[in-house]
Amino acid sequence: MARKIRISNISSLTSLPYLYLAEAGFLDYREASAAENARMLAEGEVDIALVPVTEFAVNGSYVGFDFGLAGSSKIDSVYLLGQGSLEQLKNVCIDVNACAAVYLLRLILMERLAQQPNLVRLRHEGLLEQISDNTGCLVIGDIALAARGKYPLELDLAEEWHRLTNKPFVFCVWAARPEILTRELDQKLNKLFNKCLLAGQALLQGTKTTLPLSKLEAMKHISQTVKYRLDDECKLGMSEFFRRAYQLNLLPSEPYRTARYSLMGGEAIVPGSSRSVDSILEDTVMDKRISVAEAIKLIQEASTSDLALAADLARKKFADLRGVEFELDATPTQVNNPKELESRMQFLSAQGCSPRLIRLRGESPQNWDDLTAIENKINQVRRCTNASIEALTVPEILWLSAKTGRRVREVVSRLVSAGMNHLPADGGEILIDRANRAEGRGLFTSWEWLNVIKWGHRFGAQTGAGIRVDKTDSWEDRFIHLNKLRTLQDETPGFRSLTFLPTRDPQKMESPDIEFRFHMVARLFLNNFGRFNEMESGERAFRSTLNLSCGHDSVVIRLGDGSIDKAKDALKFLSSLRTTGMDIEPVSVRDTLSSFLN
Amino acid sequence: MSLARFGIMNGRKVPVSEIPALEEPRLGSFARRALKKIGFLSIAEKIATSRAISESEIARLVDQAGIPVLIKLVKIARERSKPILDSSQLGVSQDFYKVGRDLNDLITPAWISEIKNRGVNRVELPLQPGAVSSLTEAGIQVDLVSDFDRIITHDDIVAEFVKLSSLVNSSGRVKSWMPVLTPASGQYQEAAARDFQLLRLVGIARIVCGDRISIRIARSLLSVDARPYAALAGSTDVVNYSPVDPVDGEIFIRTFSLQKTGENSFL
Fold this sequence. Notes:
Chain A is α/β, with parallel strands linked by helices. Chain B has helices at residues 29-37, 41-48, 55-64, 67-77, 109-117, 129-137, 154-170, 188-209, 230-233, 249-258, and strands at residues 6-9, 12-15, 84-86, 97-98, 122-126, 141-147, 174-180, 214-218, 237-239.
């Protein structure tokens, strides 16, 4: 028996007509938020989903069915609410699940305001309570439908878009991974989608769930306000949105594509990126975004020399000089006796190796009784150093949150207030839930990991980001992972650096050539990350040097708790690179080197 | 000379027939824009149109060009991708003779005549214009060697490449060039720095010489990690020996009279 097609709708009144899909026997129907649909489609957990239109640009390899959710001149379910005027807004709290609406909001704000407000993602609960004179709120779906008519500032984003462009705005589109489609399936689905449009009224009458509107208003909403079939006008609206978002460097330049099929076999044509390698690379030099599909095209088709040039230019955009920094692992004894740590720091400083970061390595949190005890330990260390303090990993924070029954937000806030101002990338090596579950590491989801990081950023901590280099991950998974980092960095720019984490399992190791290319394309993909770290490691010295010459810009030397001989060797090595024509003579390196070499 | 039947691709020995000999357009729009941004476009244009680059441009390469620029210029310099020949794995002996660095005084008409009589038609020697000219005029093919253990200062390195450019452009009988840089012993890091220096030197030589000669690199001079990048830097031949030890004329003549040398004869 053929597998059922896994399809995911959005659970909201606006998308109610698509509930009719649940009736089809060949479909395995489910509902989730638009953001979760996007994640599931990207990670292969569903075959077809109603996803934010922006996913087409970000992913670059989906095909659409010409059905979705659009507003001709308004939508009523996507509002920016506030007590004052638009110009007064300093912060905008946004629904944790908003995707396309956030890009549209950013685009509108960029068009209308000189000073951009901060965007803060929050859960639905309590979202509206944040509204004040200078804090607005972007609400979507049923919350928006229920909230309208209550605030002095109510900006229907579709209406605002229509005012700007005289075109409809498409928020969500039914999208598929083309590999699963055939012409027959497409025809079958299209018939179903058309039936959905007719079934809306009946479904509304039969619904037993609480509606945010009266049935009459709800009927008007789904029959008159929302457009479900994406006609030519809608497609023009999408093109215009993609064009503007690309120009403002919000999105890659991938277009919306309707599914097409081969004449002979009737299989869907996998679109990939239609642009040339040269054109994609030119975009990277112009600091434009590239999509997942474009990144994969670069990995597969670009010449190494072009990638090297582009990656080096991308590096120079952030800093012309490469840097070196030290990290110190504080022992449990030092954590418990800050005087000892202080004297170690003074010694290192005198040797020209002042650590930028101190990693507290105490007992695991399982052995700690309460949050207060941890706060006290951090605070004790904070009082004796200005260096960044890294105390707990994201999995440890999630564990603490669960154990103490406190929300992640509160735990992070308290730790940061105590003096912890750096979070490591641990636990976020590959933010693909399917992959983590398959490896038995699904204790927390990628969303939960990103949520901890987000709160860290919000409260002023910097964090590390990483990606494992492991043959078991597909290119798509790798760039979807990086896209999650890129998206969070847009909203809360607190990622300090990206570190590549090569596997130690020889069976899973990528070839040096592939690894080298991946480093370079990642640099081009993450155009909002300043630092690409190279961990000092003697055995990988050649590869590190290659990476440093082609996109990486930072060498991290871990001092451990022992001697500084290793650091001295590494610094001599970096110094010797001066003679290779590399501009690896950053002030920070030169200054540090001076005590050893000059 | 034996024809190579194998090459190295992605670090593996493969038959030459399996190595693609394709090349994208020499100076695409991206490369043009990128090179302009970093100030190497004029050099790139010269290379793309096979014009000789000047001494000041060579100095600029030595002084400022990082690996990304060098490998891009190398790619432009080569008309089409050629497989990197790995002579060390072919199992055939070299059919030429290596001449130590201090043999230039010996290269007299009588000496040339003697080695010709003995069947020598190819020699390896440092970049000595006089010696190169004498040998090439006598119909002997020349393989050049630059000893960067001795050529250390920036100006001397530039001068060496200027000389290389001039010799290659003036004589059709210069067949190859090979840099010598003794590998560092001990630390991985020192080896990596040396590898990088060597690859840069190879790259600059390729840019200076275009596709006119083979650029050889001694397997023993590069670490295992660096070897796959020799082709990217512009080398076309990885060889199993290295002329790191100069021999004096006496030893050469003695050895020479005893046997027709194969690889490793003077090592």
